């Protein structure tokens, strides 16, 4: 809970949190309120504390569990005023997994409360071995197949660089469907400016595309986070 205070002290107006479900919503609301913060993104599904997978939108046969957990995610998002829910694909491969993800997302989009956008995000093999959604082109194809206005792409510069070798080109290619942006440098998910991502080019691309969503830092600071925030001024 201290991280909300740290984010407020650092000057942020918004935060995201992978899995806030273990915290009482009222306590999170209080922490956000005292720091003037907005929670803008959470992940779904809630974690399985029995050791199960972190995400199963692309796992055939998981439809009932997927729908149940998405309802829980929707309730938590509404309680906190969250506008974006990242729906995790889980492990899998092949056409059956793709079809399952399209079907699950179609139902989730239809059930999503007004004002909530769902996103999907490709993850690189180095961070998530076996993860089904591991390519931005495949993600765009799934979004097109679902065809719902409340489904978009979540762009992460670290994953884009690791998967395709040029995060800027990937952002430019898919800018029209990107609804949330996260920053990390590659390799190693280090702070921006410590790896191979062209952040000057990426920020120029964000401005050229007139991106109006949130930009989040998602990286391992390797020390005090406050000392790694020069990228904020460059945006």
From TrEMBL:
Listed GO biological process terms: glyoxylate metabolic process
Keyword tRNA-binding belongs to the record: no
Active site: residue positions: 121 (proton donor/acceptor), 218 (proton donor/acceptor)
Keyword Isomerase: yes
Domain Xylose isomerase-like TIM barrel residue range list: 4-234
GO molecular function annotations of the record: hydroxypyruvate isomerase activity
Keywords carried by this UniProt record: Isomerase
Protein name: TIM barrel protein
Organism: Sulfitobacter albidus
Highest classification ranks of the organism: Bacteria, Pseudomonadati, Pseudomonadota, Alphaproteobacteria, Rhodobacterales
